[in-house]
Amino acid sequence: MATLPQRFDPEQCQAVTREVLAAHRDQPGALLPILHDIQDRLGAVPPEMLPLIAEDLCLSRAEVHGVVSFYHDFRASPPGRQHLKLCQAEACQSMGVKALTAELQSKLGLELGETREDGSLTFEAVYCLGNCACAPNAMLNGELHGRVDAEGLLALLAEQETQA
């Protein structure tokens, strides 16, 4: 089940992008704050907005694209309603995250980096959540969980789904 591109309202994207650009206009080194601001407001950085950002900052499209593609937290489409990030860094690997990942992929029907077609869940790899002593680690909807296993994560997902 591949990640489906979610459609943005082009007028809304342009309005938000122009507003963010204006808010950061006199800030030196504003590219990263601008990208974060746009993603906070739209849920993603729409690829169609990169030329507008580049032009406003007097940068090339390649420079802006390079920054967006370099940093893993920037996305081209918004995540699902629930957002599960599973750490794949060395400490978590030493505590069995590879097997945990395979089990979750099977049970969720998603590969890392995918979003369910109905938009209910995004499953992503991250590389260090800063909780190495409690590996393996996951972040569900912005909340950190340590010493996770598949059963516990599936229970958390179900619990949060009923609360939504």
UniProtKB/TrEMBL annotation:
Cofactor note: Binds 1 [2Fe-2S] cluster.
Keyword Metal-binding assigned: yes
Residues that hold [2Fe-2S] cluster according to the record: 87, 92, 128, 132
A Pfam cross-reference name: 2Fe-2S_thioredx
UniProt keyword Cell wall biogenesis/degradation, yes or no: no
Any one Gene Ontology molecular-function term assigned to this protein's record: 2 iron, 2 sulfur cluster binding
Listed cofactors: [2Fe-2S] cluster
Top-level taxon of the source organism: Bacteria
PROSITE patterns xrefs: COMPLEX1_24K (PS01099)
NCBIfam families: PRK05988.1
Name of the protein in question: NADH-quinone oxidoreductase subunit E
